[in-house]
Structures are given as structure tokens and as C-alpha cells.
Write a structure and sequence with these properties.
The strands form three sheets. This protein has a seven-stranded antiparallel β-sheet with strand order 2-6-7-1-5-4-3. Strands 12-11-8-9-10-15 form a six-stranded mixed β-sheet. Strands 13-14 form a two-stranded antiparallel ribbon. It starts with a strand and ends in a 13-residue tail after the last helix. Helix 1 crosses helix 4, helix 6 packs across helix 8 and helix 7 runs antiparallel to helix 8. It is about 40% helix and about 20% strand. It binds zinc ion (ZN). Zinc ion binds next to loops. Zinc ion (ZN) binds next to loops.
């Protein structure tokens, strides 16, 4: 399984200048690859693998290419061919696309060390050190551990438009080292959970928790304020550039806050349960997409599910997406469908008389669909009414942010 971890980096001024110098050489290498691809007729051009064999000649001809790590240089050539593949894929999907262009400095802000030439050191505290060959040590804010089982395949160093530096580790975990998931036959209504992803920005679990989504209203207000200011500046001026960085910073702040929140929620879910069932968002997204805010929420849920799936692998928890259509309408007890407008918060079945909260009913349906997806029936020993929690605990986003989980933890009580 492959995934990545990203960290804020704090190079000294001297190292930052060195990084910029290296990235610019990589940019030239990228452009030179493009040049050769389009203009040079030779056998060893046409794939990344073949093109790598041209690098010794490059170094003879242009000393500058010897200044950077040679594996990283290969990786930049590969990056060109990856972009080329991406382009032809888009073409096949019927999109009109241009061709690859030369990269200007503002368009080329990163480089990747692959396989060797880097080392992650001093990982015991909140700070760690990344060593890069031909460059030196860079401090990073090590807010999330890289699991021992994970191998670091590559590391990308990037300068954001805000001027901040980030490093991103490409990680790989051998399937054999992943924890085993519990046997499907052992799953039941107590160790599994169905989740209704609310269109009103919260999740509702089949065992009776609703967890609020982050309130980002202040952040979005600030974003539109900064964007309005940007629109009044003269394009290309110093002030415009400064303001553009401010906008980028607010956006990044929002993204990071959301991601951090999703990390906490998903980690809690896979630790707490042996199986987590969620709705298949592609369907849900189509059914309910209208307006920008909604689309944003769908995008956020999609990222949430991606995280959930990878953590499921990491912690040995089944994560299964189920058919989303009708989870709200269908009665969790008898299956009769009743149309419900969004404002009707109660489920009251005309068929069997079953009554419960609208979202609790939806979450129950997700749980049932998850069981059948795994080839299990609904456990006969647990009628829906019994599985349904007697009351609902509402958890604020603040509590999740502060304690890392929506579960009441007596050791660290949180005042609300
Ligand atoms: Zn019913």
C-alpha cells in the first residue's frame, strides 16, 4: 500500500537558497527533457527509463547537472514522462489538451529525491531532521509519526506560493506487514458501525453519535475578504503579489485544518471498530450536488473516505463503501420506502410503525448494507430496535480537535 505524509519544513536561509538553486537546476533538466523529446531523434528517448541513459552526456555537456543528486535528476526526467502520460490520458478521455510547456520558475517549485540521497533523523520529538545529499539538514515539524513498518520511497521538497516549505514522504507498506483484519464472521452490531455522511455537515453513527463538522465560517469569511482585496490590486504589482500570498495562506490554513480534523476522526473510527461502513459518495454526490457549498462538502467527504480507507489498511479494519441511494428513504426495519423532505427529522414508517431519528435510520441502513456487502446477513439475535441506541450523543468538533476523538474520555475531561 502506498500513501504519503506531509510536513512543514524550516530550512535555514542558507539551506533555503541552496534548495531554490537545486530546484531551478531540476527545472532546467525538465525543460531540457522536453526539448530533447521534441527535437532530438535518438534511440534512447521516448521513455523515462531510456532517457535516464542520456544523463551522463548531459553532465559532460553542462556542468550544472552534476551539481544535483543524480537519482533526483533521474526522477525529474521521470516527472516529465509522467506528465506526458497524464496528458495522453486526458486526451483519451476526450478532453482537448495542449502539449507540455516549458516551465517557468514560478511553475516549477519542487524536486523529488528517490530511493537514496536522503535520511530522516531525530524522529523522537516534535521536530525531526531531513538530510538531503548535496544540500544538508532541514528541520521539519514532525507532527505525525511515520509508522515503523513503512518504507520511505521518496521525498519531495516543495516551496509553496506562500513562501513556506514542505516536505512530503512517499511511503510504502508491504502488505505482509499490515495488521490482519478480523474475520468477517466475527463482525456484529457492536464492533461495526454504519455512518451517515450528513449533507448538513456532520456524521451520524449507527451507534448513536453525531459528530459536528468543523465550523469554518470565520475562515471562509476571511478568505473572501482577502480575495476581494486581491481583486482591487493591480495585477503584477508588488502589492498584488503580497496579497496573492495572503490568499494562498488562508486557503492552506483551511485545507490543513480540515485535513487534521479528518485524520483525527478517521483514526478514531478505525481504532474503535472492526468494520466501518460508509456510503459510496459518487452516487451521493450526483444525487445531491447543487451549488458550490454542497460540492465542497462532497469533496471533503471524498477526502475523508480516502483517509478512512488507508487507515483501515493501516489498523486492520474493514472499510467498505455501500450503495448510497435510498438510505434515508428506506425503513431500516422493514425496507419500505417513504419520501422525506430534508426538514423532516424523524423517520416514522407507514409500513411497520418503526420510529427513530432520520439520520439514525440512514446510518442503520448503511450498517445493514455493509453487512450484506461482506456476505453477512443482519444478525438475527439483534433486531434493529435493539441495535438502535436509546439516545444520541452529540459531539462538538471542538472536542474532537482537542482530544483527538469524539469518545468521552474520563482522563481528559473537556469543558464545552
Ligand atoms: Zn418499516
Amino acid at each position: 500500500m502506498e500513501y504519503s505524509h506531509r510536513y512543514h519544513a524550516y530550512p535555514t536561509q542558507e539551506i533555503a537558497a541552496e534548495l531554490e538553486h537545486h530546484i531551478d537546476i531540476h527545472r532546467q533538466a525538465y525543460n531540457y527533457t522536453l526539448y530533447e523529446y521534441e527535437n532530438v531523434n535518438a534511440d534512447n528517448i521516448g521513455s523515462a527509463y531510456k532517457h535516464h541513459y542520456r544523463l551522463p552526456d548531459w553532465k559532460d555537456e553542462f556542468f550544472v547537472f552534476s551539481e544535483v543528486n543524480s537519482k533526483a535528476l533521474q526522477r525529474t526526467v521521470t516527472r516529465f514522462y509522467q506528465n506526458l502520460d497524464g496528458l495522453s490520458e486526458q486526451k483519451q478521455n476526450g478532453r482537448t489538451v495542449g502539449k507540455l510547456n516549458w516551465k517557468s520558475p514560478s511553475e516549477f517549485q519542487s524536486m523529488t529525491y528517490s530511493q537514496s540521497g536522503f535520511e530522516l533523523k531525530n524522529t523522537s520529538g516534535r521536530r525531526a531532521t531531513l538530510w538531503l545529499s548535496k544540500i544538508g539538514d532541514i528541520q521539519i515539524r514532525y507532527h505525525r509519526d511515520i509508522p515503523d513498518e513503512a518504507a520511505i520511497k521518496e521525498v519531495t521538497v516543495k516551496k509553496e506560493t506562500t513562501g513556506e516549505w514542505f516536505v512530503c514522504f512517499g511511503l510504502e507498506i508491504d502488505e505482509a506487514n499490515l495488521p490482519e483484519k478480523s474475520p468477517v464472521e466475527t463482525l456484529n452490531t457492536t464492533n461495526s458501525v454504519g455512518i451517515d455522511l450528513g449533507i448538513l455537515n456532520y456524521i451520524h453513527t449507527s451507534d448513536g453519535k453525531t459528530v459536528d463538522w468543523l465550523d469554518l465560517e470565520d475562515e471562509y469569511d476571511r478568505l473572501s475578504r482577502e480575495q476581494r482585496k486581491l481583486s482591487r490590486k493591480e495585477k503584477g504589482s508588488n502589492n498584488y503579489e503580497k496579497q496573492r500570498q495572503k490568499v494562498a495562506k488562508v486557503k492552506r490554513h483551511i485545507r490543513r485544518k480540515v485535513l487534521d480534523y479528518q485524520h483525527k476522526l478517521t483514526t478514531w473510527l478505525v481504532r474503535e471498530y472492526d468494520a466501518v461502513f460508509v456510503e459510496d459518495l459518487d452516487v451521493k454526490g450526483m444525487l445531491q450536488s447543487d451549488g458550490n457549498a454542497r460540492n465542497k462538502q462532497v469533496a471533503a467527504w471524498r477526502q475523508f473516505i480516502t483517509l478512512l480507507e488507508y487507515k483501515g489498511e493501516l489498523y486492520g479494519t474493514h472499510v467498505v463503501q455501500v450503495e448510497a441511494a435510498g438510505t434515508t428513504k428506506e425503513c431500516a426495519k422493514c425496507g419500505v420506502e417513504t419520501a422525506k423532505p430534508v426538514w423532516v427529522r424523524e423517520h416514522s414508517c407507514p409500513g411497520c410503525g418503526f420510529e427513530c431519528d432520520r439520520d439514525a435510520n440512514a446510518a442503520m441502513n448503511v450498517l445493514q448494507r455493509g453487512f450484506s456487502e461482506l456476505g453477512l446477513g443482519w444478525p438475527e439475535s439483534t433486531p434493529v430496535e435493539t441495535a438502535l441506541p436509546t439516545d444520541t450523543t452529540r459531539v462538538s468538533a471542538k472536542r474532537v480537535v482537542e482530544t483527538g476523538s469524539p469518545t468521552l474520555n474520563e482522563a481528559t475531561p473537556v469543558a464545552e
